[in-house]
Task: structure prediction
Amino acid sequence: MLLTRKTKGSVGSRSRLAQGLAGVLARTIDRRTFLKRSGVTAGAAGIASQLPFSIIGEARAKDAAPGKIEVKRTVCTHCSVGCAIDAHVQDGVWIRQEPVFDSPINLGAHCAKGAAIREHGIAHDSHRLKTPMKLEGGKWKRVSWDTAYEEISKKMLEIREKSGPDSLFVVGSSKHNNEQSQLLCKWVRLWGTNNTDHQARICHSTTVAGLGQTWGYGAMTNSYNDEQNAKSLLFLGSNAAEAHPVSMLHTLHAKENGCKVIVADPRFTRTAAKADKYVRFRSGTDVPLLFGILHVIFKNGWEDKQYIHDRVYGMDQVKKDVMEKWSPQQVSMVTGTPPEDIEYIAKTMAENRPGFIIWAMGQTQHTNANAIVRATNIVQLALGNVGRSGGGCNVYRGHDNVQGATDLGPNPDTLPGYYAVAAPGSWAHWAAVWNVDLDWLKKRYASEAMMTKPGMTVSRWIDGVTEKPENIDQDPNLRMIIFWGHAPNSQSRGSEMVEAMKKLDLMVVIDPYPSASAAMFAMVRKEGAYLLPVATQLECEGSVTASNRSIQWREKVIEPMFESRTDHAIMYQLAQKLGFGDQFIGKKDGRQNLRVVKSKSGDEPVIEDVTINEINKGTWTIGYTGQSPVRMQAHMRNMHLFDVKSLRCKAGKDAKTGYDLAGDYFGMPWPCYGTAAIKHPGTPNLYNTHLHPMDGGHAFRALFGVEKDGVNLLAEDGVHNKGSDITTGYPQFDHVLLKKLGWWDELTEDEKKAAEGKTWANDRSGGIQRVAMKHGCTPFGNAKARAVVWNWPDAIPQHREPIFSPRPDLVAKYPTHDDVKTLWRLPTLFKSAQQKAVQDGMYKKFPLVLTSGRLVEYEGGGDETRSNPWLAELMQDNFVEINPVTASLRHIKNGDYVWVSTPGRNGDGSHPRLKVKAKVTEGVGPDTCFIPFHFAGWWQGQDMLAWYPEGAAPIVRGEAVNTATTYGYDRVTMMQETKTTLCEVAKA
Amino acid sequence: MARMKFLCDAERCIECNGCVTACKNENEVPWGVNRRRVVTINDGMVGAEKSISVACMHCSDAPCMAVCPVDCFYRTADGVVLHDKDLCIGCGYCFYACPFGAPQFPQAGAFGLRGKMDKCTFCAGGPEADRSEAEFRKYGRNRLAEGKLPACAEMCSTKALLGGDGDVIADIYRERVARRGSKGAEAWGWGAAYGQPPKGAGAPAPVPAAPAGGKS
Result:
């Protein structure tokens, strides 16, 4: 070894280095480059504009790089923010990842997951599932794709023959791109069942339902970026700093410009650490907290009276209820929050308008979440905060494409675009789009009744297997399940899931990682499961919808790794084996919707054909019709043209296609009504009447009729889109309205043919939408938002204690709903379960509230991220957060192993218990414990390593909190309760 | 001539660890070696919790350089403190001298040789030829030679971590401090690393004392 220092002369590089570095700053990092690279041009527009800009210099050493490097632009697959990534690929290998400073969404920023995403492309020591596998004699054995397809399809057809199509449940994925989501929705329907669901059920189903029923669309109203225009932000049920870290870029920028940030949460989170004010409340008491805020607003006359008069139905009824029930003192008794904190929030929000309420799973994963979400909507309506820039309901979706998969994917109650399965017209519409014979499709189902009956939900599939057949609302029990990109440990009652797995005839897991489903199944079974390796979203192309409804196009970075195949290829290949291959690609009457190409995955449908011929042609309800691949790809190539604060492009053309981007909002946030040809720019902020619809303006949807008990449900006079030819409220557009208005002849002859007898939602020419917008009208009408949802169990949101409540006195006062005999095909317990918990003294045996949530390092069930060494190293143990007082009383020290037990149920009737480390912190109050939910691979103290396929177990394994979470579902959407149950903690 | 510095804005750092994995990714740093880490103090304490991203600060008067018995450290024209792994004997003196805990000692085989010290290079590689395979293997990427800044700072989720010309990042930071009032007026670690707070600042310590009775 050299022990003398190399001389300058002998090491040419040294002088080059010194020379290079000396020059680097002058020549290649001028001030503009620097500011851009540190992402402050947009983050601090004020200063940046005062600097003398010069041209960006060429990187000096560019020519030194060996080989040809291709740059592929993709989007992070780990959350819904939608951070762009430039992947550098050399000879098919992903060698580097560079930030995309031009992205108006993330400005080059990444959290731990985004900054570690290149690991997906590293084959060495990969923990991926590499080949198809079959469980044989209790061991995972490698099989070929052909064998796997052959055996799986044979078994499926056998079971179908005997038990009918409803014996299958398909758990889809919010990580599929839009095209694959749409295809899987179709795949399941071509099989002939509505028993399908995906992460959205247990993510934001209550949000989607609550928002949709209030004002029309169940999505985030504005964008992350638009928080820069806000004067106050209330985080109620979101820990964005860990779950959506890059969104904090916009949040903190807003805060530095004077926006007030409040975090209300049972835990003092990383987000709370950045707030102006933190307010603690008991988990599950969100309705009282929100209505306490509303009470103060009404009491002081801070509500926006004109806005309520013009645009809101039923606020007077809500006001009466809230003023009677929820004084700050009463709220304090229920929530534990000091009355002055409630007054502080109300005053801050009232004095700092516009503002957002921001939420995620903290509001949605409760048995009473439908009411919580609506209470939030009502507070925002009272303040006049909805339908404008800088204010609204920013619901942060979870998975990268959970918004898109909700909009288009495998849902039990809707076809793509929220066309209800219960409405026969939906089937006619989509059969026509898919080029599938409707009568053939009907015959695929057990009966027309089953075709129009919403299926079971992912939160309850285990009951579909284990419930007595006479209690379920379909003929067979579930006998087979396909986990197509979904972790089992994100569903509650894991201890009971194992019992369901014992009874299944077939389980197929289609996933890049074998996931905990494989290990759980192998733990209790010898036979009956197959694992199929699938490509990630980095190994295929397609579009992805971010939380703000912007749609981005991912380029394929690398070919599918190992023996994995793309999701859409597997769908097609399996469909062929199951006898509906032609229908899957829409081959009928000399037409074929989707071309099929040969690829590394075998025969594979062309993704762009799905976008153009199915999504763009069918999804009129929510405006997925204008975002053609050409437009999306032009946006991806020209991100620098979009303004960070408004997301709008002022001017500029795409060099490759000549497409003129002027006026477009980045990613054409849906609704992007009409065909791509009419160039609707997308809708950055929903319900904003201050703009013309062709400028992104919008209105509340006329979804609930024109009148209720003699009260007008349409917007009042003077409320309309800018430039509208109708200056008052109006119903949704259809052929009749168009004719009455005398606008029918503005349709072309072809449009007239298509639009006759149709509405804005099923006119496949897009003509009705085009003409409505030409006159400045929103195609779905101009109505009032509903503070009272008369068709729901609680027309006015009510507080109802969780099933497992620590407060029997409050259970008596605020009981949950009555049991329901059939809800989403299954009997569902409410009051009887709650009463039994009280009678059994669960609140005494398990005196602490157990809540759960996310960590920044991991995503979802975590199998993927816990297999990434760069992430896994950062968080190697699962843990429970416990207050120092609570810990001391139990002689628990920081870092000790503890047992956390809950009132849940194991197969033998015992209570499940989790072995985790204690993190003693004042972040939780003395009455609350918190466990993150991303872990799996331990089962009640035991490492499950032996049950994973060899070489495909995650690096970090730990106890899944959902092994021990308990019964409890939302009355409307069947959302599971993971945020409020009970527990006891003891030293291990 | 620019003087390269790091600055972590504790008012913005959310402990997302993006900087940590960006470093791992770009430099292919092995398990067990952490050139950069994020520290949260007063965890869970209302009003007192702060997170800070820490790595080698490339100090003006670097203690590591002063104590190294084989003189393996050197400073580039841009003020980046680098070292020569061919000279390093793995004695660990630098680790004891460093106020930031930056030097890392891999147990086995990382970056070529056993026991050699490893640390943040400001993404400026080492003494080998710029952007050569040997440089990458021993020290990681040389982004500065490519006209780029350190990956950690470039990818920081909230732009809390700034890396670059000390004057420019001080300007950015000062602007932020001015906009938000006095909060975080003194950039964490700047006194220890560079002997002075960013010019024009100079107010109280950024980290409030923990409330009485609290545990860290």
Summary: The longest strand of chain B covers residues 36-41.
